[in-house]
Amino acid sequence: MSLDTDEITHLAELSRMSLTEQEILDLTEDLNRIVEFVDQLQSEKSEDIEPSDLTIELDKARPDEVGKSLSSERLSEIAPKWESDQLVVPSVLDLKDE
Q1: What range defines the domain where residue 35 resides?
Q2: Residue of 4, 74, 84, 87 with fewest CB within 10 Å of its CB?
Q3: Count of structural domains within the chain
Q4: Structural domain includes residue 76
Q5: In a domain, 17, yes or no
Q6: Are the C-beta atoms of residues 78 and 71 closer than 8 Å to each other?
Q7: What's the predicted TM-score (pTM) here?
């Protein structure tokens, strides 16, 4: 399986990414190398390989502790936009085009 520039352009549009022609070409090449590597890994026989006993400790996060925070009044003073006691942020998804 390989990807072409039309598929990369389509994926970029779905992701709402704006890419130059050179970025599309570079990304097509990079993703095709990744797909080739995955294909190569899938072709390797692994039935006779014993599972690893290696374990990792997953609980590496710091404890969740309440700390000093801004009051609503202070936040409303420094926020770029504040409406109805809420901080207003720019939309991440612009769905007007659909």
Answers
A1: 5-43
A2: 84
A3: 1
A4: no
A5: yes
A6: no
A7: 0.48
